[in-house]
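hiii so my PI (J.) wants the whole complex modelled not just the main chain, which honestly fair. so below is everything: two entries, each one labled with what it is. i double checked the lines twice but i was tired so who knows lol
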Amino acid sequence: KAMCSGKLQTGLLVAGYFVYLLVGAAVFQVLERTAEKQEKMAAAQMKEAFLQNFTHLTVAEMEQFMKNLTEAIQNGVYPVGNESQIEDSSWDFSNSFFFAGTVVSTIGYGTLHPKTAGGQIFCVFFALFGIPLNIVFLHRVGKMLSLLCKKLGKFLHEKGMRKKKIKFLTLLFFLATGILVFLCLPSVFFQITEGWSYSEGIYFAFITLSTIGFGDYVVGKQPGRNYFSYYRMLVAIWILFGLAWIALLFNL
Amino acid sequence: LVAYIGYVGLGAGVLQALERPAEVRAAQHLLQQHWELLANHTCLRGAALQRLVEGIVQAYKSGITLQGNTTSLGRWDFSGSFFFSISAITTIGYGNLSPSTVAGRIFCILFALFGIPLNLVLLNEIGQLMLLGVQRCAHRLEEVFHWQKKASLLVKTCALVTGLLLFLLLPPVLFSDKEGWSYEEGFYYSFITLSTIGFGDYVIGMNPDRTYPGWYKNVISLWILFGMAWLALVIKFCINFLE
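here's the output for the full assembly
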């Protein structure tokens, strides 16, 4: 009888999972469809307008140029500006370090990614050992934080609180401080440094710390902004502790 | 902690060495074309071209390619949205498709907030079932052949190899046929997807010049699910080994 209910549970889980996906898909479709249509129309209009202004440029040449441009963009070369941009590399050490971090934490923004076959193969093996290393590391940090938690619990217990209440309070405390420190405050910070709106900041913080990492928002990528030199490092530390906090939440 | 930072730093150094030259070449190539175009059409003033380029970059970032006249399939059709939902709750997060409306983003956060734990629970279940299957095989072998300790090790390596074949080594062959990627690119894509890193530089079913069979995306979704469960088991064993 236990076996039967176990199988039923698994079946329900699988069914629930797919239903969840279907519902999500439908909602996303409804929400995003119209915006996409508008953007497409805008892009087509821009193309039209450009062709009209320069009537001797054949459509074929235009298409070719756009194809080359799209390829370049896909390769991460943004052709805005002139010669001097060749000197600034996306693969300087600081950016490569940040990239390696996104690999090992499995966030994987994708704004920077290896294009050479050698780089890609190295990336695979780097991740194969780096991801367990990352998990072990986060586990340790989570353990240290949970020791802190237990000390707090002990302190409260000596003051005469019941165990259940303590557990509930510590969970609440960590949840609240974590949300403040890792979601709310950084969003305010990003408002200043990146010029994002508050909701964009929260969206970025959530997508990053959950390791989804779409890459539509990434720190330090706005052209024409000056970032103070330890900005990226600061953000990396935030990501690290944010991930450890999430690991801790799972443990509690 | 030192090992962690050292490891990341080492990776950074190697990647930089590997990627820099190719990047420089690509940039130079593009700049060349840029000047060629300007030279061919002397009335094209730099500023107007610049604006066009910026417009194209912007469109690209929102995921729109301006090829041809055809109104290509909307990417937020049901199949695309379904795939997006998967990429969100598995935390792969390719990013080639991402919500641009405020409502879409808020929904995305809530959707992931409940979806990610759901996904973890399901992956755990699948992983346990796989492990159970492997252990049963080991038991059977022990009964039939009267091996003792060898059976367990043999079955475990067998399972590892089949998993490797099924999830990492064979799919690139399918991808090179359907997507036109090289084998190495297919392997890279498979690993990046199953480890949930998900850069989004390679995504299946996104090539407008290719036609995909109806079963393609569904089969891939199943592959992602089981492959992730398998890889999670492998990484768990790696961690036990490290600790």
